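Final report, closing paragraph on structural work. Over the funding period we assembled a curated collection of sequence-structure pairs, and we close with a single example.
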Amino acid sequence: MADSEYDRLLAELAQLEEQCPHAADPMSPTKRVGGAPITGFTQITHRVAMQSIDNTYDIDGFLAWYRRCEKALNGPFVIVADPKIDGVAVSVRYEQGRLVHAVTRGDGTTGDDVTANVRAIRAIPLRLRLPTGELTPLPSVVEVRGEIYMPNGEFERINAQRAVRREPLLANARNATAGTLKSLDPSVAASRKLAFIAHGRGEWSTAAGALNHWDFLAALRGWGIPVNRLAQLCANDDEAVASIKSFADVRAQLPFGVDGMVLRVNDFGLQDKLGATDKSPRWIVAFKYPAMRAETRLHSVEWQVGKGGTLTPRAFMEPVVISGSTVAHATLHNFEEITRKDIRLGDVVFVEKAGEVIPQVIAPVIAKRSGCEKPIEPPTVCPACGEAVVREGPKLYCINTNCSGQFRERLKWFVGRDQMNIDGLGDRLIDQLVDSNIVTKFADLFQLPRERVANLQSEARLKSGKAILRRLGEKTVDAIMQSATTARGRGLARVLAALGIRHLGTAAAKTLARHFPDMKSVQGASANDLEALPDFGTITAASIAHDLSTAALRETIVQLEAVGVQFESLEYCRGSDGSVSPATDDPIGGKTIVITGTFAAFERRALTQLLEARGARVTGSVSAKTDLLIAGKEAGSKLQRANELGVEVWDEERLCETLALPPSA
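Its predicted structure, as stored:
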């Protein structure tokens, strides 16, 4: 199911639950994120140990494993060959069909309770279902072992956003998955589209029924738990070898990381007979494919300008085939990596596919140097705009906020939901607007030429699945222009966050909007003024003050003002006499507030914006610094934590009364 369809159905379900609260189910998918950041991870002992799997790195090694098992079992046996997902192993326990807890592998005996984060993963059902017509009841207890992973597309999306915000990029999808699961705030897991594939079992009741692994996978699929559809049933060792070899040709095209093939004895009775060592079961082995590496010659390096101004070196090489695809370009990461590895122009280099997807230069082949190789010099000016480049840590940056190389991606950021929120301007349309010279600056988005934009083409998909191009149309353009008109009044904080200023994200923009009445005041602030604000450090304050003073950014602001974009703060309070002051006289002005639970009259995002507009600072976790907790229904552990710390608590009725809001606000 497409995300958009899932989200539509989820919204409909939430509306029905509001209309019929007596019928709401605590296991509903609308309750996936409990909202309460946890204070730490408790430990849970596995009922059945999560042992590691022995590895083999060649066909001979696999055949040696097969012969040992065949000898112990007095004959051949059936094998299940299953792609080995490169993720984080977890054990998800269901009792009477309901998710009870999810635990990481840990040391194999005891792991971390990550239930709060796992509940936020859509692929993992909160409640098992019986297939239509199935008479066999659900097992009273079943522990499902599997891998939580981050799809390649989601990993790239997150890194693209982090690049815009000038945050360090995630190293790889597996580490990103592990970090997400270990976050103390379940909303982090909800915002990252992690996936899950089951591959094994822990404790289970005899009512579960299946006598072999293949039937167990079928049962899981019937209950609504995802399993790998690339798994194969192999009658003997020859078929298993054929499966290993055939999968080697397709694994690089998968939308997730795979680092091998898991082969296990299918029959559970035979598994029990083979038993296990202290470390690993004897009835299973992981075949690890050789690294996807090749040698080629590095001819040149091109420095590409990213969304946040980061200059990334891209290698141009003699084309080489790696895992069935021709590679002529690869990442060199950053200049510090080039220096550390001593990579030079003209070198013969090793190239691998990082995560089996992204080509990267691993190292030079020193033995093949001729002496004619030349050092790679870092650029002193931006290759796109010619402005000076600065170095921060291992990276090089173009600090020109109007850099043409950054503009296209900055534009996509500018129109985003959490920035100016201009509906209808997707990435493809933004590219068309820029390529057609319809949009050459941010201000152009607010005065689009209706006919020219209407004649642009958008991609549509027929029922047959065939993609066609069709004219965008006046109605679509009218909707975009109306959304842009609305966006003009979103206020100082949203515009500041949308401009893509280094070190100035959503939270910092809101802080500025609470302390300054308008853009002119922000631009007049010194680095020392900014450093005095909450959560502003010396480096951040100096960088923001510098960028705000640049001629390019000042010109952008003038252009936006000329098309009606409002730069007054909605979080700053203006008195009846026209004077302005931080909103401290409001009952919530200046207070640190946490929201938890569900509300009859408010959607959480809208309530957050309302509170921030009145001068409050909304955070995600309860601490000693929290001034107020606003608790709706099913408040959970945040409410408990607030009571422990003596934090003031308001319910929805108190909120509406105190802020003079109608119940239907």
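Residues 46 and 109 are 6 Å apart (CA to CA). Residues 3-19 form the longest helix (17 residues). We thank the funder for supporting this effort.
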